[in-house]
User: Which sequence fits this backbone?
């Protein structure tokens, strides 16, 4: 599992709120997309108490209509990533 797998929580919350969704609403959309996500699991991910796997990451990207960079780094499409020096 990626070392970044538990660092998406704050960005996940921002993306959820950008769409005006509650945790219950996002969990329901993820369930419709085939995930076993519950509001409690989602809350734990957002608070960094729970790690995510690759399948969940793909489902978040699909349901939230975001990019991988937005999910992991909070970078909107078209903006360059900050350099790591």
Assistant:
């Amino acid at each position: 599992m990626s070392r970044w797998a538990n660092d998406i929580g704050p960005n996940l919350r921002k993306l959820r709120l950008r769409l005006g969704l509650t945790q219950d609403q996002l969990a329901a959309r993820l369930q419709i997309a085939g995930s076993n996500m519950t509001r409690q699991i989602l809350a734990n991910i957002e608070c960094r108490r729970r790690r995510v796997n690759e399948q969940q990451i793909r489902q978040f990207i699909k349901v939230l209509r975001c990019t991988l960079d937005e999910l992991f780094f909070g970078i909107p499409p078209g903006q360059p990533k900050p350099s790591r020096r």
Q: What stands out?
A: The two ends are 24 Å apart (CA to CA). Residues 15 and 65 are 9 Å apart (CA to CA).
